[in-house]
């Protein structure tokens, strides 16, 4: 039985991520959420391609230059009586593996939709990913300060395209310049919108009751319109049901404007009230209950050089069960050894704080000196391996070459460390000294070159290379493996972790190799 104080810590915690199509407003919402969490006194202007200021979650150089979120950062903040962990995810599709892995580390998601655009491509894809674990989804319809689509139509689209029932919790009154606020269906109150309060906490005016004449005074003819629309909406839409929400079948929907800082707090109220506390998770051996007080957790992300001053590599570990205490000895099951963790970190988006205690649901940062890999499980001595952390096969390949050939060692070190993060793979052919970079998206090639320059002081360029796919090689029979190595040497390479891979110029070449060597396993991803 878990102790009362441990259960209190559990029940307080909510760990979530935001999923959205680029430009829907994820960064802006993150800022406002932190503002409400009082983590930031005054939320910065969004990313500031124009203003020169940057959102706190966008702290990598690349992000500043391109105005996109490249990396995942983790933010913890208090909200009312709760403790919220928000895991930021890259919006750009070239970084989707990073996002997919982050989604394995959360218990619920906030889906942000641009109300002028409706459901967009990337949202559809990300929703598919959340379906793998039936993650509960809260929806925020953003940008009500602009001319948007009809709210009923928006809900219909979400239901139809994303196959999830919608239960409106708030309902918008007007839109664009005429946006007046929202009516909260559960609280039976109207919250009025005031413009020009985007950077501060709003002290909104609240009118209790739908039939209150004050409402007619405040918003004129919109009041009567609202009453009529609501009758329709309440008849036609779904009522909120927490069990359905927890099963991922129904989403509570909020309306507002992140830029105007309106409605984000309603969403947060819903999140802490309804979203699940840290959930149990499946390991290959058994299901681990969050109420077990023994520590367990898994690494879902590795990030090199988060802080240029520290020049280190951080492994992000989601705690599945138990309590982490500073100085604790943890068992790393992949290598079967105990490691002492003296200096774990918590994150305030780029600001790092040394950590004494953390609980299930929290993310801790472990210093990685090359021994931690994505997917690794840590425990208090039990052999456990958490499952379901995806790895993706690279689909694009380029040869990378130095401008200054004397820095080969530095280049290799940089590439291997960046490959640890899982976004790119590096391949070293057995028969020559080439270095080949494999990536899932084009943008990652640029990121690698920019980070090599900024973090490892090497200038590299790409050249085309005749590789179109890669497979990781496994074989239990040492003799057969040796024979294969001799025969196929021209196509063999080692990846960043010294794992044997087959790099094929064409799919036909790969099929032929597979036919010729039926005892060899050609695996599309490096198994975590
Ligand atoms: P993302 O992280 O999902 O990609 O979106 P982000 O928050 O960066 O928002 C994308 C654009 O939408 C930004 O404008 C942002 O100011 C704007 N935006 C976000 N929320 C709202 C809202 O509620 N109302 C309105 N009207 N706009 C909103 P931008 O001009 O592309 O950014 P910037 O160039 O000013 O940095």
Quickly list its features.
528 residues, protein biosynthesis, 29% strand, binds guanosine-5',3'-tetraphosphate, alpha+beta, 14 helices, 8-stranded antiparallel beta sheet, 7-stranded mixed beta sheet
The count of β-strands is 31
Radius of gyration: 25 Å
State the major sheet.
8 strands, antiparallel
Helix count, per DSSP? 14
* Helix share, percent: 25-40%
- Tell me the strand percentage band: 25-35%
Mean of pLDDT: 87
Please give the alpha-carbon distance between the first and last residues.
32 Å
Provide the low-confidence segments as ranges: 40-54, 62-72
What hetero molecules are in the model? guanosine-5',3'-tetraphosphate
Strand order of the largest sheet: 27-24-26-25-29-30-28-31
Family: Belongs to the TRAFAC class translation factor GTPase superfamily. Classic translation factor GTPase family. PrfC subfamily.
Pfam family, one: EF-G_D2
Subcellular location: Cytoplasm
Protein name: Peptide chain release factor 3
In short:
Residues 11-279 form the Tr-type G domain. With 528 residues, the protein is an alpha+beta fold.
Give structural notes.
It holds the Pfam family EF-G_D2. Residues 11-279 form the Tr-type G domain. InterPro entries: EF-G-like_DII, EFG_III/V, G_TR_CS, P-loop_NTPase, PrfC, RF3_C, RF3_dom_3_sf, RF3_GTP-bd. The protein contains 14 helices and 31 strands. It is α+β, with helices and mostly antiparallel strands. An eight-stranded antiparallel sheet has the order 27-24-26-25-29-30-28-31. Helix 7 crosses helix 8 (221-236) and helix 11 crosses helix 12 (443-456). The longest helix has 16 residues, at 221-236. It starts with a helix and ends in a 5-residue tail after the last strand. Mean pLDDT is 87; it is low at 40-54 and 62-72. It binds guanosine-5',3'-tetraphosphate. Guanosine-5',3'-tetraphosphate (G4P) binds at residues 20, 22-28, 46-50, 91, 142-143, 145-146, 257-260.
């Amino acid at each position: 039985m878990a102790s009362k104080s441990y259960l209190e810590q559990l029940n307080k915690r909510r760990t979530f991520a935001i999923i959205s199509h680029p430009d829907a407003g994820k960064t802006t919402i993150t800022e406002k959420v932190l503002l409400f969490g009082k983590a930031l006194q005054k939320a910065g202007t969004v990313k500031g391609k124009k203003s020169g200021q940057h959102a706190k979650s966008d702290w990598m150089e690349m992000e500043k230059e391109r105005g996109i979120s490249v990396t995942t950062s983790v933010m913890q903040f208090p909200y009312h009586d709760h403790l919220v962990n928000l895991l930021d995810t890259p919006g750009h599709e070239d970084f989707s593996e990073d996002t997919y892995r982050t989604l394995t580390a959360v218990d619920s998601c906030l889906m942000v939709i641009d109300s002028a655009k409706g459901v967009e491509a990337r949202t559809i894809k990300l929703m598919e990913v959340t379906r793998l674990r039936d993650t509960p989804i809260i929806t925020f319809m953003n940008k009500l300060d602009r001319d948007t689509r009809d709210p009923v139509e928006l809900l219909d689209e979400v239901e139809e395209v994303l196959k999830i029932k919608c239960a409106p919790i708030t309902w918008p009154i007007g839109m664009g310049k005429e946006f007046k606020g929202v009516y909260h269906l559960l609280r039976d109150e109207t919250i009025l919108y005031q413009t020009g309060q985007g950077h501060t906490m709003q002290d909104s005016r609240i009118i209790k009751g739908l039939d209150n004449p004050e409402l007619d005074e405040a918003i004129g003819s919109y009041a009567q319109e609202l009453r009529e629309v609501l009758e329709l909406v309440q008849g036609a839409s779904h009522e909120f049901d927490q069990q359905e929400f927890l099963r991922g079948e129904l989403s509570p929907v909020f309306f507002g404007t992140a830029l105007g800082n309106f409605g984000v707090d309603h969403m947060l109220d819903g999140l802490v009230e309804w979203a699940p506390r840290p959930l149990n998770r499946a390991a290959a051996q058994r299901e681990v209950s969050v109420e077990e007080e023994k520590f367990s957790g898994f690494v879902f992300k590795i990030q090199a050089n988060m802080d240029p001053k520290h020049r280190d590599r951080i492994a992000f570990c989601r705690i599945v069960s138990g309590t982490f205490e500073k100085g604790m000895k943890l068992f790393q099951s992949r290598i079967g050894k105990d490691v002492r963790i003296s200096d774990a970190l918590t994150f305030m988006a780029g600001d790092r704080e040394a950590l004494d205690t953390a609980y299930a649901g929290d993310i801790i940062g472990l210093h990685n000196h090359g021994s931690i890999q994505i997917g690794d499980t840590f425990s208090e001595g039990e052999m456990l391996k958490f499952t379901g952390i995806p790895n993706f096969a690279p689909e694009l390949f380029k040869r990378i070459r130095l401008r200054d050939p004397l820095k080969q060692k530095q280049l290799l070190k940089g590439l291997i460390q960046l490959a640890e993060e899982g976004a790119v793979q590096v391949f070293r052919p057995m028969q020559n000294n080439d270095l080949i970079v494999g990536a899932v998206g084009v943008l990652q090639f640029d990121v690698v070159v920019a980070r090599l320059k900024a973090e490892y002081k090497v200038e590299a360029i790409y050249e085309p290379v005749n590789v179109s796919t890669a497979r990781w090689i496994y074989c239990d029979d040492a003799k057969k493996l040796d024979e294969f190595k001799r025969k196929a040497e021209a196509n063999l390479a080692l990846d960043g972790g010294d794992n044997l891979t087959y790099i094929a110029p064409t799919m036909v070449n790969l099929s032929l190799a597979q036919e010729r060597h039926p005892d060899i396993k050609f695996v599309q991803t490096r198994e975590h």
